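Attaching the record inline, Q. Sequence:
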Amino acid sequence: MAVHVVTGGSGFVGNHIAKALKNRGEEVIVYDLIDTPDRSEDIEYIQGDILDYDRVLSTFKEAEYVHHNVALVPLTKAGKRFWDVNVVGTKIALEAAEKAGIKKFVHMSSSAVFGIPDDCPITEKTRLSPIEIYGRAKYAGELEVTNYMLANKPAAIIRPRTIVGGHGRLGIFQILFEWINENRKIYIIGKGDNLFQFVHIHDIVEADILAAYSPINGIYNIGSACYGTLREELESIINYAESRSSVVSLPVKPAISALKFLDYIKLSPLAPWHYLTYHKPFVFDTSKAQKELGWNPRYGNQELLRESYDWYIRNYNDWKTRGESSVHRKSVKQGMLKLLKLLP
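Structure, as predicted:
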């Protein structure tokens, strides 16, 4: 039985990792600023800031493995705080991991480090070229972990595609599912003919845990087994929901300009990462993770979207009233998009 620290263990991804480790019989410590009501009593919770080196170190000294999930995500629109938490926080966690003699440090990164890649599928050798503030911070955080690995210290980096599935995933998906449930038009930027890949939370958790126990260091792109175009995936979930919604294309340049303005005046929930990239082809080649970790994706896009939609419908009244602070686990204010939703 090993002891694992899951930083950011109250967030959507960290929460699932903590529960999966506990279900495997491991000892788990969640390190986060907030606790959650669904944390099992046999998972220890330590309240702490990732920027508090002494508290991070004292927590890590109790463990053998670290799953680093603390991050400010695009929806927070955190400005300078992106750098403080996603870069400085990662550096502090790495320093504490080295000092504590951690056997493996697994860092949860982001697709945003690639920006808008020239070619798909994206491999681990694809050039990293983030295009917005969140992606640049995640890229800088990755560089800290990469340098740690180059110094022959034990670590791995997991890069997930857009995460859906499991229970508790809301964020911008709450908007999508709400509009589908209410038979509203679903607006997309461009034709929607771009290949688009999601990934199930359980597949991300499996990759994370396999990377923790792997004897080798590595960087791994993780995505769903089957995927189609963005329009195809949206039309599929609309049909599954027996909704009268339809997918409506918006012209690319005017739509992006409008969303940039609404973002600037704080009247849109969407962040630059969303409106600058979601009309572009974006799929991962996952063969490296399959070869080196023995990981295999169990879910395709349509399966995970259906599972998430079903969870949304079953728990509609619950999430409307809950007070969790993790951005991906609570509803999102729609701002001016709410007016768009009401258009006939």
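Residues 323-330 have pLDDT under 50 and may be disordered. Residues 81-100 form the longest helix (20 residues).

More tomorrow.
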